[in-house]
Amino acid sequence: MDPWFPIETDRLLLREFRVSDEPDIHEYACDPEVVRYTDWGPNTRDITQSVLRRWLKEQEHGLEHSVTLAIELKSEKRLIGTIRIEVKDERARTADFGYSLNRRYWNQGYTTEAAHALIDAAVRRIGLRRIWATCDTRNVASYRVMEKLGMRREATFRKDVLQKGEWRDSHLYAILAEEWLAREEAKAEIAEAFESRAAGV
Ligand SMILES: CC(C)(COP(=O)(O)OP(=O)(O)OC[C@H]1O[C@@H](n2cnc3c(N)ncnc32)[C@H](O)[C@@H]1OP(=O)(O)O)[C@@H](O)C(=O)NCCC(=O)NCCS
Hints:
Blueprint: E1 7-8, E2 12-15, H1 22-29, H2 45-60, E3 66-73, E4 78-89, E5 94-101, H3 110-124, E6 130-136, H4 140-148, E7 152-163, E8 166-176, H5 177-198
Parallel strand pairs: 5-6
Antiparallel strand pairs: 1-2, 2-3, 3-4, 4-5, 6-8, 7-8
The structure holds coenzyme A.
The site of coenzyme A has 22 residues, from strand 5, helix 3 and helix 4.
């Protein structure tokens, strides 16, 4: 398979990590607000360093099943978050994904933009047929991202994840490749119709 990253979007670059990303990763990973609904964190500096070492090592070995990428904000040339995709079943071509963003950049559509690019690559480049993700039922921002991407809530699990010593409830969202492609095609048609109207065609 041809390499499917880095991926450039309007405002972002989804790319491999560098050793110099460590302070930017730590800035969000040690923030108790960012890790409120995650089963990891808040990180100590040592933990952030060892996580980054692991990601750098994974990159060297070109891991095919699980890829974590830096979300770089092009205008500031800095890492503002991370996004991960993991193939869960090679034969069924299914994968799950997850994301975290520095709190200073929340609610500006960055994660939706990054996840849109990731799912598009997962469907068109990697050839996956079902992509899903789970989140804490209280994590509205996370499931809003999935809803904005056209993912459907398929299930709610009761007390399925042990998170910082407490059992949490989780929503599961998913989208099929054919749904993704149909949605993208419909969006392109609408955009084209608007352009034609603006051009007076
Ligand atoms: C989840 C997260 C990555 C979203 O990142 P983001 O870049 O802010 O996401 P976006 O801007 O693309 O979209 C966020 C949406 O949630 C909405 N939102 C955020 N907080 C909300 C709240 N408390 N109630 C209702 N909607 C909320 C925003 O308004 C936006 O929706 P809109 O575009 O319809 O207005 C970010 O909040 C984060 O890093 N959280 C901590 C880590 C985490 O929980 N990761 C996910 C683990 S499953």
